[in-house]
Automatic annotation (TrEMBL):
Protein name as catalogued: HTH lysR-type domain-containing protein
Species: Bordetella genomosp. 10
SUPFAM superfamilies: Periplasmic binding protein-like II, Winged helix' DNA-binding domain
GO terms of molecular function: DNA binding; DNA-binding transcription factor activity
Gene3D superfamilies referenced in this protein's UniProt entry, alphabetically: Periplasmic binding protein-like II, Winged helix-like DNA-binding domain superfamily/Winged helix DNA-binding domain
Length: 294
């Protein structure tokens, strides 16, 4: 069994087309078909069901697909380890991040990491928690910077890199802006901007829980996917919102931030560095170590 055969198997499993797989592998269809047959003979089981017009994975094929991907991943890590021994760490790091990571965390981590690892290139992609976790599961990202607390798939682990508390964001000309500390009771009759439940379930649930614990049914008037969008809507006078304290690092005109009482429940949240335990690269490990030391 060769790495080449496993690559061909995975490519065919992803395309379910000998023509498409052959094009992606830059070979013709007959040698691909022969190679897959040889692999099936070595394994002792058929990996694909073939008809005149369709190709589908068998139960055996489905059962070994994930392992084949991991073997290819580990094989790709070998030359990186060898290069590290001679020249130092280099390569590409794919990082997905939620919008609020731009306020301080990304800058705090990336600047020292780039200085200590000049041979590393970065591919940065802003997304929601849901999109980042999905990309980590598919190994399309090495690291995800996510908003916590959040339910995690079993293969995803994370470490908290930064803790925040909720602040009240309100227009600077709002009468409540005259107070230094606001209670949730102060917001009972105010228009509230919340986070979209299916895109940011963690923040949505925390805000909902805060009002529920206070015995208040909020007057929800707007929803948004990103913290930045929520703050922007506040600046337009569309309502009041509960936002992570990191937003104070980049103030926006027309928006004031006020604290909640310290005894307010469920006010602590954070940013975590997430990774897929099955595809944790050496480079990702170095990035995590740097991040937790910052």
């Amino acid at each position: 069994m060769e790495i080449r055969q496993l690559q061909q198997f995975v490519t065919l499993a992803e395309t379910l087309s000998f023509r498409a797989a052959a094009e992606r592998l830059h070979i013709s269809q007959p040698p691909l078909s022969v190679s897959i047959r040889k692999l099936e003979q070595e394994i002792g089981a058929e990996l694909f069901e073939r008809t005149t017009h369709t190709v589908n994975l068998t139960k055996a094929g489905k059962s070994v697909l994930d392992l084949a991907r991991q073997i290819l991943f580990n094989a790709g890590e070998l030359p990186k380890l060898a290069r590290l021994a001679n020249t130092g760490l280099e390569g590409e790091l794919k990082i997905g991040f939620v919008g609020s990571a731009k306020y301080s965390l990304l800058q705090r981590i990336l600047i020292p990491f780039k200085q200590s690892h000049p041979g590393v290139t970065f591919r940065l992609h802003e997304d929601s928690n849901h999109g980042i976790l999905h990309a980590l599961e598919k190994n399309d990202l090495n690291i995800g910077i996510i908003r916590t607390p959040l339910g995690m798939p079993p293969t995803i682990s994370y470490e908290i890199a930064e803790y925040h508390e909720f602040l009240v964001a309100l227009p600077t000309d709002h009468p409540l802006a005259a107070k230094e500390i606001l209670t949730l009771e102060d917001l009972r009759h105010e228009p509230i901007i919340n986070y979209t439940a299916n895109a940011i379930p963690g923040l949505h649930a925390l805000v909902s829980r805060l009002f529920e614990d206070a015995g208040i049914t909020p007057n929800l008037t707007q929803e948004a996917v990103q913290v930045e969008t929520v703050v922007f809507l506040v600046s337009l006078g569309m309502g009041i919102a509960l936002v992570p304290s990191c937003v104070e690092a980049q103030p926006i005109a027309g928006v004031a931030f006020r604290k909640l009482p310290k005894n307010t429940s469920a006010t602590r949240l954070g940013l975590g560095l997430a990774f897929n335990t099955k595809y944790k690269t050496l480079l990702a490990s170095h990035f995590l170590e740097t991040a937790m030391a910052c």
